[in-house]
Amino acid sequence: GAVVSQHPSWVICKSGTSVKIECRSLDFQATTMFWYRQFPKQSLMLMATSNEGSKATYEQGVEKDKFLINHASLTLSTLTVTSAHPEDSSFYICSASSFGGSSYNSPLHFGNGTRLTVT
Amino acid sequence: SQQGEEDPQALSIQEGENATMNCSYKTSINNLQWYRQNSGRGLVHLILIRSNEREKHSGRLRVTLDTSKKSSSLLITASRAADTASYFCAPGPQGGSEKLVFGKGTKLTVNP
Question: Over its length of 112 residues, how does chain B's per-residue pLDDT go in tens digits?
């Protein structure tokens, strides 16, 4: 149980275009999902917290107009990289908790990531 | 949220040996979690230890927690080549937040 599906697993796009990445919780409801990005051989950097039915909360230094997050349902969050540039090339990973609200003793379940290459 | 700091940054051992990784953090926690990341993949949750626990086992994994020293360790016994991955600790802060921040991890290489 507790599977998170992330799609696509890799994408190549041209500079200036937008790319949408989907993150789905397949067998549980996720009121909160998290988006990370990871540069080669580096740690995951938390970009934003996605809450179902409300605006995402972005970490300091992350451009909310560039990285649009939508959490329209309890099983789906999307990250859209708008007007992508080569420096946006990275590995993007989503995660979700199978327990929402007041339970903080629960693990996060991660998608397998999306490798974005902007040419 | 706070991130943990893993040590060492890299560890190379032979198959069958034990691997020990350490994690330090700065402020009080509700729990601490360990995750594994295989190259090019997402993270996989390994084990969660609560702040009132001192030791926890799961298969070949043993995690200890010393809240007085603000540190944790992950021991993998009888390592296998398949254990080759990066390992991250994630302190779960008191006060309530599911948000986890990750450090640089320990890159473990198990040589066959």
Answer: 678 999 999 999 999 999 999 999 998 888 999 999 999 999 999 999 999 999 999 999 999 999 999 999 999 999 999 999 999 999 987 666 668 889 999 999 999 9
The number of C-beta contacts closer than 8 angstroms across A and B is 65
Query: A112 and A7 in contact (C-beta within 8 Å)?
Result: no
**How far does the CA of residue B102 sit from the closest CA of chain A (Å)?**
6
CB-count burial class (<10 Å; 0-12, 13-18, 19+) for A13 = middle
- Closest among A29, A105, A84 to B29, alpha carbons compared: A105
Which residues in chain A have their CB less than 8 angstroms from residue B101's CB?
46
- Chain B stretch 45-84, residues whose beta carbon is closer than 8 A to a beta carbon of chain A: 45, 48, 50
Task: Determine the pLDDT at residue A25.
Answer: 92
CB contact under 8 A, B102 and A102: no
CA-based nearest distance A83→chain B, Å:
25
Distance CA B68, CA A35 (A): 32
Distance (Å, whole) CA B46 – CA B8? 19
